[in-house]
Amino acid sequence: MTLEKKKNKQISKPILVAILALLLLATMPLSAITAQEKPAATKPITVTLDGKDVKLKDPVIVTSGRLYLPVALLSRMFGAQVDWNNNSEETTINTAYGDRIILGNGVPVVYFNGTRYVMDDAPFVEEGRMYIPLRDAAELLHARVNWNEEERVAGLESVPRAVVTEQFGLTEIVKQMGSSNDELLKRNGLKAKDSIEVGTKLRVVIPTLFDREAKPFTEEDRLLLAKITQVEVGDESYESQLAVANVILNRVKDSRFPKTIRDVIYSGKQFPPAHNGLLDRSVPKATALRAAKDALNGKNNVEGAVYFYNPRVTKGDFWSGLSTVGTIGSHRFAK
User: Fold this and answer.
1) For residues 40 and 180, what is the distance between their CA atoms, to the nearest angstrom?
2) Which residue intervals of 30-70 are DSSP H helices?
3) Which fold has domain 219-334?
4) Whose C-alpha in 22, 107, 152, 228 is 20 to 30 A from the C-alpha of 55?
């Protein structure tokens, strides 16, 4: 056999394999090829109100397994009035049934008719709009929500108030709604001794978060926290001030430190202004007051940090041996 024939024989096998592969691809369904190249798109989420589709200008956001919708959109759906405070980054909602709701950006505590409750997840601002967990929002706005996973439909149902009649009193309403006397009275700002007359309209949706009242704090604590924050980082950003406030609150929770805000600030050497008179003369500005309030309401941007220091000024084995949680402004926050 000549050298040329040997070469032709060696080349023929790879060519034959390539031809067979092309034939196999040609016989495969186009859908099968496409599926390998690009995963199937997730079906978009639909929101309905009382069975009718809601037109959404802004996207539904899904995070941590929860659906979030814009606060303003939800409020309008249920006839509520919404006000946004850009300085405090708070939304105030006055509902059609007379409830008052105050939500803060990144703050897990909601003020509902003057009482503080803890939500499972905090509202947040995205693209200039505040988003809130859909289920919490629906209940606060006196509505219910049902989620159909297969159809990816969030069905909102507005719930009218129950009207007291001679035949349909508190006992009957409680039984129908599956709540308790105490829950229904609390929801309507009533006490057991209050008389409920015929014709009274009662709000009957009991928000789930009613079981999670936030730990109280005093105005004295808030002011003291704002004052030390002002002294320490009053010329820096809100994020820096929030972090300093949280270092103090993290210490209150830590067994190595005193158990009150005042004792944490006035003990030890971490806060010299508490011992040289600067703290007593401090007048906190709006940003420090907001940082103190948000921290007390659970917004924490330095989880676990119990120390803060300026690495350009403070040095030594103790500080270098700490674990850094984050650096904000001129300070490093550590544990």
Assistant:
1) 47
2) 30-37
3) Arc Repressor Mutant, subunit A (1.10.10)
4) 107
